[in-house]
Amino acid sequence: MNLSQHLGRRVIAVRHLCPQLGALRHRFAERGGEKLESGHSSGTMADVAKKIREHVGVEAGYHIIPKSREGLLKFQPKQDELPNRSMVDSYTTAKVLLETDAVMRQRFVYGRGLLRMGRIIEELDLLAVWICHLHIHLPNLPEGVPLPYTFITLLVDHAHFLQEEFIADADVSLSGHVSWTDKSYMEVTAYVRQNGMLLAKGIFVVEARNAVNNGPAPVNPLVPATKLEESLYQEAQKRRANATTRLESQLPTKEEQQLMYELFTRTKGADGPSPSDMSTLPPNSRWMSKWRRRTLVHPFPENRNESNTIFGGFIIRKAIEISYMTVSLYTNQRCMIRSIADVTFTHSIPVHSYIKLKAYVVFTHKNFIQLLTVVNAIGSNSFEERRCNVLHLTYSCSNVVPEILPRSYHEALWYLTGRRYFNRYHDSVSHDIVNEAKGGIE
């Protein structure tokens, strides 16, 4: 089977899935009529941000040298002192008030009136941190003492956007719970809804650190309390087991090597490669090397988290925004983000840094386009640059897009990585729909 036939079948399948995605029922997480819910509400997302600051005892306002938290280290518990927790213990909901708050609505919309997906993920990342706060229970912590923990987002495993368009003037409901734990790590499953309709789902991996953020801190073991929680826990265990090897680090398979050769033969020209011109661009296609966009961002203290580094949600938002602009320029049409995968946080970004963002179009087929976005930090004192984040994003467009083609071996590897992430997106969407059809897990 050649490249076009192989991918054509998968893309047709995904295009058939899209209408079904928009029709997913309002159900937090259930199987056979049983629902995971607690009735706990955290108010608005502004309330969530305030509660996080109060919970860890962070002073209001920005301080170049923040108040020392070393005194809290003595309150860090040992693992055997922590009681078991269930998923319902950390389950909560929070609102983004778009219907009645015009100022808030202005922050969440594009010029065309559509909701900014980067803003949605930024809020979802904040909620994931708050859910970790709710999961942690220290029975021996004296009353009035701040939580001697710091929480760092290590990974956004994936986030799927299941609706064609969000509504700009209806409240957004965010919810979620801890779905897996291991020593100092927690996985959080979070959902986004409007008018009772499931619109997005995200999986975050958060690390618990000690009060001064220089070492790990133990977390309460997660023990499923119901059959539903056990089912969710098993799903999370499979995700974490499969996440040990990243797609871009895998060697090309025999099938992929064949695809690389087919790409080469399509671009070598009618007379084959020559020293003067090694490649020829086929019709309705573009070179990958010509389609990369970059920008610099100057973050400020308002973009920091409680650890006094740049908030991970802000970084993801900026990465989504440059990828959206790149897709729009590449296609000359309005596109919809469908998935973000394997958002890694290798290094934290200090407040006094600059951020360099680079977006690359690495794979296309029919009306789908895959991007790789890289986030680097540049120190404002040393001006040294280092990689901090990598994101893989899938977009769908209204019409067929020009094909992207690699011109070098290095770009061909990027092409294969983009193809892998596109295929994984298709498989995971199929899995969600099968579960929904069975009355299963969103």
UniProtKB/TrEMBL annotation:
It comes from the Eukaryota. Residues 289-401 form the HotDog ACOT-type domain. GO terms for cellular component: mitochondrion. The keyword Transit peptide applies. One of its GO terms (biological process) is acyl-CoA metabolic process. Keywords: Hydrolase, Repeat, Transit peptide. GO terms for molecular function: fatty acyl-CoA hydrolase activity. InterPro entries: HOTDOG_ACOT, HotDog_dom_sf. Belongs to the acyl coenzyme A hydrolase family. This is Uncharacterized protein, isoform A.
